[in-house]
Amino acid sequence: MKEMKVLAAQRALNIKDEELKMILGKLDAREKELKRIKEEVIEDANDLKKLYALAQERIGEKSIGDLAIEKLQIEAAQLEVEAATSALHKLAEMSQELLNKASLSIEADSDTSYRDH
């Protein structure tokens, strides 16, 4: 009877171990996605700086209409950077929630397996 309980506990632990591996895999994928988005945000910021520098260099040659168009383009680029940053923060929050849930699940299973002994 005791052996059956031990085997059942081992099976439960194996299942939770597999769940943890799956969750860690998802977390790793999200971290890679966060890294990619961060790189894109940095690239967007650098592009925005280049665009601004070009606008400053060419300001003497531009009409008011051209300057207004460039200003709108810069604002659009800023909005894209803000949107990417927001997405990055959201992914970070989701990853943290996923990690917290995994941790709670493991703790609950540990408590259950100790009570069974």
* Whole-number tally of structural domains: 1
Please tell me how large the radius of gyration is.
26 Å
| Mean pLDDT reading | 86
Query: How many beta strands in the DSSP annotation?
Result: 0
Tell me what portion of residues adopts beta-strand conformation. Answer: under 5%
| Helical stretch tally | 2
Helix content: over 70%
| Secondary-structure element string | HH
Helix vs. strand class:
mainly alpha
Shape: rod-shaped
Largest sheet: none
What is the oligomer described by this structure?
A: single chain
Coiled coil: 20-94
Keywords: Coiled coil
What does this molecule look like?
Residues 20-94 form a coiled coil. Keywords: Coiled coil. The chain has 117 residues and is an all-alpha fold. The chain has one domain (2-116). Helix content is 94%, strand content 0%. It has 2 helices and no strands. The longest helix has 57 residues, at 2-58. The chain is rod-shaped.
Structure, briefly:
Residues 20-94 form a coiled coil. The protein has 117 residues and is an all-alpha fold.
Itemize the secondary structure elements and their pairings.
Layout: H1 2-58, H2 64-116
Helix pairs in contact: 1-2
Keywords:
mainly alpha; 94% helix; coiled coil; 117 residues
